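Provenance and format

Records in this collection were gathered into a single text stream. Each protein contributes a sequence line and a token line. The two records reproduced below are adjacent in the stream.
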Amino acid sequence: MKIWMNGKFVGGERAKISVFDRGFLYGDGVFETMRSYAGKVFCLDEHVRRLSSSMKAVRIRPPYSEKRLKDIVRKCLEVNKLKSAYIRLAITRGEGRFGIYYTDAFTPNVVIVAKEFGPYPGWMHSQGISACVVGVRQNEYSPVSYVKSMNFLNYILARFDAKDKGCDEAILTNTRGLIAEAATSNIFLVKSGTIIAPSLDTGIVPGITRDVVIRIARKMRITVKEKKVTRSEMLGADEAFLTNSLVEILPVTKIDGRRIGEGIPGEFTKLLHISYQKEVIRQTLS
């Protein structure tokens, strides 16, 4: 594996970050996770645009232009001879002294990893997964909640909590007890033919796949409502599914031990997943 670090490719065994890097010290950095199909990164423009927005939100000086970052990502696929790949683009504030605030002119560290994509187990899409609401909360008043930050402890602890309860995935509520998102994905519900998504102001990362699904659904003339969602409303849904760039659209058939709808992947979930894959093909061939 060849990893791109700060302007050059290095072997995986030589890819090192200083112990004084603020990403290591404080989780002071941002990242994007992407997926390529047939050698083309899906929604690359949107991912790099969100990365730029994240850097602006946490005041990291952009080390490269958006065009340059996209070119490097494509080069990573080429150098590693990858078609179907997982790509992670990470940018930290850089190396610095101990302490959370300095006015030093930090030089950001940029690391891009691309590796062969390993498909998820087939049963996850054919049967659906289980999820549960956990005690870890998302702070909708914090700007960090809306950023793809390296500080992932909230989500890590949420996933631990879910696994302790025998569930596959964690669902986080915000400080007001409203449904926010899952540990590594956005959540959608289906009720009486309407797609329901927790609104962005509930404290969620604005998912790239979330946007694609909403756009696809509206193009198909399916009603989509972005709104505040309660736990009881979620448990009363006909269908539920999760979205992120790697898993695409993943059915959730049980939440908090209760069956969602018929307890099998729903028709809207399956239809949207097929439509999503068609969008992937369309973009890949364009």
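Adjacent record:
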Amino acid sequence: MPPTIAPTPEHILRRLDWKVIRRLDGALQGNYRTQFYGVGLDLSDLREYQPQDDVRHIDWNVTARTDRLHVRQYLEDREVTTWFLLDLSRSMRFGPADRHKQSVLIDLVATLAWVFTRSGNPVAAMLYDPAITRTIPPLSGRRQVLRLIHELLRETDGQIRASTDLRVLLRAGLNTLKRRSLVFLVSDFISQPGWERPLALLSRRHELIAIRLSDPRESQLPDAGLIYLEDAETGEQLAVDTSDPGLRQSFFEAGRRREETLLERLKRVAVDLYAVSTDEDLVRAIVRMAAVRKLRRR
């Protein structure tokens, strides 16, 4: 067999343009950014509170003067920088060889970056892998998207073995992002505990969208007999007999509890989570995220 040729940023962007972005143009109408960005910074008007309104927008001074709840309405910023905070730790390389979590991350980020930057809005990124955080400053244009893809492809060769700590990435974002921005946090959320507080602070200062990438095999063991499992981040190995139905059920229950714990932590800090699986069509995933955000804003 001839050796596999590694894809270049140009090849990836050309593939996404044909297979994903053109389909998005038909599925999502209007400005892409308005599908995700909620409110800007310029106060537009005040009106009485409605049951579906966000309580964070209540103007308590006006409410106190009038004895009726009033909410602030905003004009959306004409130019909003989109930041991607990206978890590139070793657990993100789990999944099928041709479509593991990190390859889905690259496709997702490249697609969003391209559709945002086409209208002139700058995009930027912070890469975490896992003890190093590097920053790609905000710029717009096709060249910026290609640079982002190039950096993501280069990061896949990292050899650092350490447990993921999302606090490092989130604190770096808090220290770097000064102006209110649209922020995508993309991770599998397999991390050391303690990331809830910096995530809550980031959500208060910016328009935050948390996206969790997952693979179905992370919660379902196949009946494949005796196999060796390895912790991608620490290198620890364990021999397990997957023909044992009790073991497979325990593995499934552990995955379910991990999912419930994650959702509960995000609920406590009032951050919505959007799930994208390695076996899911990317266009459908993005359209679903946009539809859910539009519904929640209403």
